Amino acid sequence: MTADPTWNGVALDAATALALLDWQREMGVDEPMLDAPVDRFAEPLRDPAAAAVAALAPAATQPVRAEVPLGTAGAGPGGLFDGDDLPRQAAMLAARATTLADLAAAQQGFDGLDIRKGARSFVFADGIPGARVLVLGEAPGEEEDRQGRPFVGRAGQLLDQMFAAIGLSRTAPDPDAALYILNVLPWRPPGNRRPEPAEIDAMLPFVARHIDLAAPQVVVLMGNAAAQAGLGQQGILRLRGQWGTAFGRPALPMTHPAYLLRNPIAKREAWADLLSLKARLGADQPAQP
User: Distance (Å, rounded) from C-alpha 262 to C-alpha 253?
Assistant: First the structure.
């Protein structure tokens, strides 16, 4: 039998130790510190997100590292781009992907963002590729980071209820009734903070390629980060409900379900936006013979 762990000389049982870890995570701790330094460069590279890739293709793919050939314009020593050229590096990696599985491996291999170091999971997508409606969110939260899927916490439950009210579901096998869901950032920011503009810019080529490969008919932009990525604008309370064009497709900005949980009175406007989406889908449906 092993002794209980200690903290500041005080013995801890398992439940107390887990509670302390949860508290540290909620405070935004993203890097453990040991008594002796660890040479991270001597450790093997992590495997790709097996769950995300396996769900999209029968055969596993290898991650594409975030290096580019020496001599490429903008590349520095070792073939790595600096921070200002991360969008160009991401665009090169994204352009090579011909399938969603390829893109998942390429995106997870992109090491230009520090937030990946503190995230538990790489959160790629959920739902049915080829669905008429693609929902673009902001970034994973705590529950999404734990499960490795977008929109599965309280906000995700509300999102499912909202779209179910107009006959759409992420689990529907029929693309006409299905949803495909992803976030601008595939890793959880520390402390659930908002995505930063530089992070959005770095991920934008992956998002654009992801939408091209998923081939939705319309895109729903959930929240400010999604509006920034798709429309180059923020101010979701001003933008919501106004159809525009994002990633070459009709796009509808909507308030994020997390905002609706904090401000239930705003659900009335969200319902109006859902009805607008339903009407748009019905108008685009081919006439029955």
Answer: 18
- DSSP assignment letter at 167: T
The number of C-alpha atoms within 13 Å of 3 and in the hemisphere containing its C-beta is 6
Full-model pTM: 0.72
What is the rounded CA–CA span in Å between residue 163 and residue 166?
5
CATH 3.30.56.10 assigned to 46-284: no
Model confidence at 39, in pLDDT bands (50, 70, 90)? low
- Average of pLDDT values for 33-44? 55
Query: Region 246-271: what's the mean pLDDT?
Result: 97
The b/e string for 43-58 (b: 16+ C-beta within 10 A; e otherwise) is eeeeebbeebbebbee
Torsion angle (degrees, nearest 10) of CA 52, 55, 57, 58: 120
Q: Cα separation of 53 and 205, whole Å?
A: 19
DSSP string, 72-90: -TTB-GGG-B-GGGHHHHH
